[in-house]
Design a protein that fits this description.
Neuraminidase; 1 helix; mainly beta
Length: about 400
C-alpha cells in the first residue's frame, strides 16, 4: 500500500510540474531577441542609394505610329490634290465662259450674275437682279440663258443686249442649238394630245412642233447634239428585255436615225464637244442599280463600239475635252442609287480621267475639300478643272497641269 501511494504522489508531482512549465512558456517567457541589424553604410554625398529590385511586369507594347498624312499636291497627280475655293457664296449652274478660262454663275446671295477670271477678278454680267432662280440653262456661246423660277415662270435673258423675253410656263427641259440661236424644249399641255417636242428661236419666237410626246414625255431626254442634227433621245423603242432600252435619236426635221440599245435604265447622255462621241450612264441589276458609265462613237448613221467604262457615276458629272472624259465619281454608292440619286448628295467625289479612245481610266485627283460635284468643267487650255459643290453651291477648282 505504501508503494502504491508513493507512486501516485510522484505522478501527481510530475503532472503539476508539466502544467507549471507550460504556463511559464506561453505566458511569462520574454520576447525573442531580434538578430542584430547589419551596419548601415551612408551613400556618398550626392548619390541616391540603390533601389530595390522591382517586381516583374508585363512588357510595354508601344502602338505603331500611324504614318503621316499624305501631303496634297498643287497639281493633280492621282492623289490628294489642293482644291481652291473660287467663290465663298453659293452659286447656281456655273459654267465655263466663252473665253474658255473664266467662270460665270448666278450668285444665290444677291441674285446677280457674275463672271470671275482665273486671277480672281469678279465682274457683274448684268445690272439686273434675278431673285430665286431655280435653274439656269446656258447657250453654247454663254451670252444667253433660260432662267426658271419656283412659281413656274421662265424667261430667256440676253446678256449682250440686257433684255429678256418671257416664254410659256408649260415649256420645260431646255437645250440650245450649237449656234445658240434656237432652243428645244417639251411643251407639256394638260391634254396628252397637246404635248410636243418644240423648237423656237432664242428670243422665244417662231415656235414649231417637231414630235408629239403624248404620254411619253418622261421618256424623252432633250439634248441638242453638237452637229446640230439630233435634238433629243427617246426611250420608247421596242422592248429589249428587262432593264434594257432601245434609244431613238430624234432629229429636228423628222430624220430617221438608227436606234441603239443601252444596257439599263435611267439613260443620261453627254456629248463630246465635237459630237463624234457620246458617254452615258445607265443602271441595272448587275450594278446593284448603281449608275454605270458607257461610251460609244456617234454619227448620223449609227451609235457603235459601245463599251463600259467601269465607273459608277452619272454622265452629267463629267466633262469631255480632246477625247478625254473628266468624271466626278462618288467614293461609295448605296445599292439602288440609280433610282434616287439624291442619296449620294452627301458622298464626296474623287475625279477620274478616261481616255475615250482606249477606255483606259486613271485616278486623277482626291480633292482636299470633300464635296459631291456638279457642273464639272475643264478650261480650254486644259489647265484647270472646275466644279460646284452639290450641297454648298461653292465653286471649286483643281489644277491639272
Amino acid at each position: 500500500m505504501d508503494k502504491k501511494r508513493i507512486l501516485l504522489i510522484i505522478a501527481f508531482i510530475a503532472v503539476a510540474a508539466l502544467i507549471a512549465f507550460g504556463l511559464f512558456y506561453f505566458f511569462f517567457r520574454g520576447a525573442p531577441t531580434p538578430p542584430a541589424a547589419p551596419p548601415v553604410t551612408a551613400p556618398p554625398i550626392g548619390v541616391l542609394p540603390p533601389a530595390a529590385p522591382a517586381a516583374p511586369q508585363a512588357p510595354v507594347v508601344t502602338p505603331p505610329v500611324a504614318p503621316g498624312l499624305p501631303q496634297a499636291t498643287s497639281v493633280a497627280r492621282g492623289g490628294l490634290t489642293e482644291t481652291n475655293v473660287i467663290t465663298s457664296a453659293a452659286t447656281q449652274n456655273a459654267t465655263l465662259a466663252a473665253d474658255g478660262t473664266s467662270m460665270q454663275y448666278w450668285n444665290k446671295t444677291d441674285g446677280k450674275f457674275y463672271r470671275i477670271t482665273p486671277d480672281g477678278l469678279v465682274k457683274q454680267m448684268s445690272g439686273e437682279t434675278f431673285y430665286s432662280v431655280q435653274n439656269v440653262t446656258w447657250s453654247p456661246d454663254k451670252n444667253r440663258a433660260v432662267l426658271e423660277y419656283p412659281d413656274g415662270s421662265k424667261i430667256i435673258y440676253n446678256f449682250n443686249t440686257q433684255k429678256q423675253v418671257t416664254i410659256p410656263r408649260f415649256w420645260q427641259d431646255f437645250s440650245f442649238s450649237p449656234q445658240s440661236d434656237k432652243i428645244v424644249s417639251k411643251s407639256i399641255g394638260v391634254d396628252p394630245n397637246n404635248r410636243w417636242l418644240v423648237i423656237s428661236g432664242a428670243d422665244g419666237t417662231g415656235t414649231k412642233a417637231v414630235e408629239p410626246l403624248g404620254e411619253n414625255a418622261d421618256k424623252v431626254t432633250v439634248n441638242w447634239s453638237p452637229n446640230g442634227q439630233m435634238i433629243a433621245f427617246s426611250h420608247t423603242g421596242d422592248y429589249q428585255g428587262f432593264a434594257r432600252q432601245e434609244v431613238i435619236p430624234i432629229g429636228q426635221n423628222h430624220e430617221n436615225f438608227k436606234s441603239f440599245t443601252v444596257e439599263g435604265l435611267g439613260f443620261t447622255p453627254l456629248w463630246s464637244p465635237e459630237g463624234d462621241k457620246l458617254i452615258y450612264s445607265v443602271y441595272n441589276a448587275d450594278s446593284g442599280y448603281r449608275p454605270t458609265l458607257w461610251a460609244t462613237t456617234a454619227s448620223t448613221d449609227s451609235f457603235s463600239a459601245r463599251k463600259p467604262l467601269g465607273l459608277n457615276t452619272w454622265a452629267d458629272k463629267c466633262a469631255i475635252k480632246n477625247d478625254v472624259a473628266y468624271c466626278a465619281v462618288p467614293t461609295s454608292l448605296d445599292e439602288g442609287a440609280g433610282f434616287e440619286r439624291t442619296i449620294a448628295d452627301e458622298t464626296p467625289d474623287v475625279f477620274y480621267k478616261i481616255d475615250l479612245t482606249t477606255g483606259t481610266k486613271t485616278l486623277l485627283a482626291i480633292p482636299t475639300a470633300d464635296a459631291s460635284a456638279t457642273n464639272v468643267q475643264v478650261s480650254a487650255d486644259g489647265q484647270y478643272l472646275f466644279y460646284t459643290g452639290k450641297l454648298d453651291g461653292v465653286l471649286y477648282k483643281i489644277r491639272l497641269k
